[in-house]
Specification:
heterodimer; A: alpha+beta; Beta-Lactamase; 3 helices; B: alpha+beta; 5-stranded antiparallel beta sheet; 4 helices; 7 strands
């Protein structure tokens, strides 16, 4: 799993990535420290829950993909039926590339979790 | 050693911290007990005193049992314990080896958020705790005039 999420860190400006449960608990992460990954995980899970409540439940076919913009950086996350992938990146990062990569990683992780 | 002394000012601050925690996490109830099984604080639960006494004693028992397991694996105590039920889940969190926060929540709450916000609540509670040697009440002192008056009274008694 680590090898899979590590692929996204090759994109310039990516400071870390994490796979979390829909309850906001950390499954695996790369780079950023444990405390901030817990906070990011909890925040992303809460936003994802709110989005699911208003837009409908995220499925593997139709996941929820969102970007949180802040003054210092951006958080891109993709919510599927069983897990959420969150990527923490700097302002200069190419969000388009991350969006493509995050979808590929989600497919790979889904297969890994099925095994 | 630090202790949580429940004077009105501290209770108000504790209530404020717990309410913030409840709003952010959307949990149903928060109960604070000590490891002896005594209830210190509760909010969001409207059960009888008997129920609360039983709940506190049994919860403290559960925590104390896990302390023994923690010691077996070389730790002082487990910081967080989770019990999942069909409707209500309980999240035990130790502030120190004497005070435990019990959070009751349902499907509306997110365990990851509870985990993160609980750390903040624990910090707030630790900040409210005071050292043992700090005297809360001022010592009663008698001035010289009062002493003289009492001495005169006593002297008069034996005249």
């Amino acid at each position: 799993m680590k090898n899979t999420i590590e692929k996204i860190t090759s994109i310039p400006g990516v400071r870390g990535a994490a796979v979390i449960t829909k309850d906001g608990l950390l499954i695996d992460k790369v780079f950023y420290d444990n405390e901030s990954s817990e906070v990011v995980g909890a925040m992303v899970a809460q936003i994802s829950r709110e989005m699911e409540n208003s837009l409908g439940k995220a499925t593997d076919e139709i996941p929820i993909l969102a970007t949180i913009y802040s003054s210092n950086g951006e958080i891109v996350f993709l919510s599927q039926s069983d897990f959420i992938i969150a990527v923490l990146c700097e302002k200069k990062t190419n969000i388009g590339v991350i969006t493509i990569k995050i979808k590929d990683i989600a497919v790979e992780l889904k297969e890994q979790l099925k095994k | 050693m630090k202790q949580l002394i429940l004077i009105p000012d501290i209770i108000n601050k504790l209530e404020e911290a717990v309410n913030d925690y409840m709003i952010t996490t959307r949990v149903r109830a928060v109960i604070i007990i000590n490891t002896a099984g005594q209830l210190i604080f509760k909010t969001g639960i409207k059960k009888s005193d008997n129920f609360m006494q039983s709940f506190s004693a049994l919860s403290a028992g559960i925590f104390n049992a896990t302390v023994s397991i923690a010691k077996l694996i070389g730790d002082d105590y487990f910081e967080n314990i989770l019990q999942e039920g069909k409707r209500i889940n309980l999240y035990y969190s130790a502030v120190n080896n004497e005070i435990i926060i019990i959070t009751a929540y349902n499907q509306n709450a997110i365990i990851g958020v509870i985990n993160v916000m609980n750390k903040k609540l624990k910090k707030n509670i630790l900040d409210l705790m005071t050292e043992d040697d700090i005297k809360i009440k001022k010592q009663v002192s008698f001035d010289n005039e009062y002493k003289d008056e009492v001495e005169n009274l006593l002297d008069n008694m034996f005249k």
